[in-house]
Design a protein that fits this description.
The protein contains no helices and ten strands. By secondary structure, it is mainly β. The protein is globular, with a radius of gyration of 16 Å. The relative contact order is 0.22.
Length: 156
């Protein structure tokens, strides 16, 4: 684990995500039964001496999060076990976390709220098949912190 002193200051707001989280996916349009709840775990950890943050969904997917320090939004590189790779934009402002991807064939957006104690994240993914003109619900996902760790923003 990287020390707070070595984290790229452009990424400091991501410190709130660091740790291990229980995940629950539900209300999914791609599951046969919309009442199905799929549990899992994710983890966020600093890599490359604090130059980037990686989110891992077990062996299923990895998200590498970084930022050009001249841009206020983050860039996310996604890859999964199905062989998919995608690039998302991302923002994390106070209690709101957003991800987005816009392509003509399949666009996505995610919006989530962090609880006041920073231990619960409640979110929803939407999808679009027309370049983002019309959006429809894809699935809900909630994260609950399962490891303590330093998740308070560090003064810079």
């Amino acid at each position: 684990m990287e020390s707070a002193a070595s984290i790229n200051p452009a990424l400091a707001t991501l410190e709130v995500l660091v740790g291990t989280w229980e995940m629950e996916l539900f209300g999914a349009s791609f599951l046969p039964d919309p009442d199905t709840r799929v549990p899992g775990f994710i983890s966020f950890e600093w890599i490359e001496r604090g130059a980037a943050l990686v989110m891992r969904q077990g062996d299923a997917a990895s998200w590498i999060i970084g930022r050009d320090d001249a841009d206020e939004d983050f860039c996310v590189l996604y890859a999964d076990a199905r062989g998919l790779s995608r690039v998302y934009g991302m923002s994390l402002n106070q209690n709101t976390w957003k991800l987005w991807r816009r392509t003509p064939e399949f666009s996505q957006r995610f919006e989530a709220e962090l609880s006041a104690d920073r231990n619960v994240i409640t979110g929803q993914w939407k999808k679009s098949f027309d370049g983002g003109q019309k959006w429809e619900h894809d699935f809900n996902v909630n994260y609950t912190r399962s490891s303590p760790g330093n998740h308070q923003p560090t003064a810079r």
